[in-house]
Amino acid sequence: xxxxxxxxxxxxxxAGSVRLRVGAQWGGDSMTVTATTKSAGAVIRPLIAGxxxxxxxxxxxxxxxxxxxxxxxxxxxxxxxxxxxVMIAPPVTLLMLLAQRQNNxxxxxxxxxxxxxxxxxAATKGAxxxxxxxEMLADAGAMAVIVGHSERRADHGETSATVRVxxxxxxxxxxxxxxxxxxxxxxxxxxxxxxxxxxxxxxxxPESCTAKTTAVAYEPVWAIxxxxxxxxxDVATVHAAIRADLVARFGAEGDAMRILYGGSVKPxxxxxxxxxxxxxxxxxxxxxxxxxxxxxxxxxxxxx
Length: 304
Description:
Layout: E1 6-8, E2 24-27, E3 30-33, E4 37-38, E5 43-44, E6 47-51, H1 61-72, E7 85-89, H2 92-104, E8 113-117, H3 134-140, E9 144-147, H4 150-155, H5 160-172, E10 176-181, H6 185-189, H7 193-204, E11 214-218, E12 228-230, H8 232-250, H9 252-256, E13 258-262, H10 270-274, E14 281-284, H11 291-298
Parallel strand pairs: 6-7, 6-14, 7-8, 8-9, 9-10, 10-11, 11-13, 13-14
Antiparallel strand pairs: 1-12, 2-3, 4-5
Helix pairs in contact: 1-11, 5-7, 7-8
């Protein structure tokens, strides 16, 4: 079956891809995007979230502190002028340590960088060995939790029904749920992308979703960690479909929900991806592990 063209993370654009300029300024090889993004009827503050996955020992906390320092350094800092929310989801072994350390130093807890978790159990407590409830994550210092990541769906057999109750648990605990949807390479080659994403979206989002409590992350599974991304036109098509479904179901709240793109987001492609309509930020994997790379990605929203 003929495969649709890919846009390679090195910045090289292959035949069939489209370079969009939604609210963007191009200058040589670099581009910055406006600090806020728009849906059809709402101005949305972007969110850049770093997912560390199963990476990071205590020695890596310095990378988080470097990002926090860049965000909180005021005028003239590396991220001065960035009008976006930023969070990092470290492994749970570091979550409370980071929250305590940063609160003591006036950093993450009292600054612009927020902490998130990577998964939660649906129950508040009980006989669930090895699991962690959303309430426990909130108590540890998390402000949000990722649910439904493709690696959880694949490695642990999580269904959209499971994701739905986890998202509801996050809302119950006062956490923002970052709900992930996306297609596999087989589904993409079968031209099932929109059908899969729409099905996951309908089944994964609980009725408790609002713009404040929920962000949706579109992560084409085949792009995660591969260095490949869809064409910008493909991203625009999927995000527009997600927006339409959110508005149809949640009305004005759906129009204001953030839709993140995730899948091999890197410093050299972030600005282009963030310029696409209805892309309201990014869910960043490997590139969030190194402060300099993550700071460069966040910088796509730097004013000027």
